[in-house]
Amino acid sequence: MASELSVHAVYKSINRPLTIWGADRRLFLLALMLGAAVFNFFGSLAGGLIVFLALYAAARWLTATDPHLLRVLFNAGAVRTEYDPSTLAPVTIRRRRRART
User: Fold this and answer.
1) What is the DSSP letter of 19?
2) Which pLDDT tens digit goes with each residue over 17-38?
């Protein structure tokens, strides 16, 4: 059976992360909500803007550095650990003295 060569279109926009103003959309909304929370809690517009701008800058840097790091961090809690020292019982080791001759 002869295999035919098939061509499928792949669009660049499918593989790009979803961003708002250059930052990942989830990190952008987190920065926006925390800026609004600071504004509501302290009643300071300057404080809310400073928190938003600082978190937005961090989100933009994180998105530019590694756009998939946020997915890795979210999935890290769901993965089974390979080695957990707290689940093992402690082992006692006794040294035997050698008889002197």
Assistant:
1) E
2) 788 888 888 889 999 999 999 9
- Entry pTM: 0.61
According to DSSP, residue 87 is labeled G
How many domains does one find in the chain? Answer: 1
| Pairwise CA distance, residues 48 & 33, whole Å | 10
Which of 18-22, 38-42, 52-56 shows the lowest mean pLDDT across its residues?
A: 18-22
Q: Is residue 93 part of a domain?
A: no
User: Closest by alpha carbon to 62, among 15, 30, 36?
Assistant: 30
What does the DSSP assignment read for 74-98?
A: HHHTTSPPS--GGGSPP----PPPP
Is residue 10 in a domain? no
What domain range is 49 assigned to? 20-65
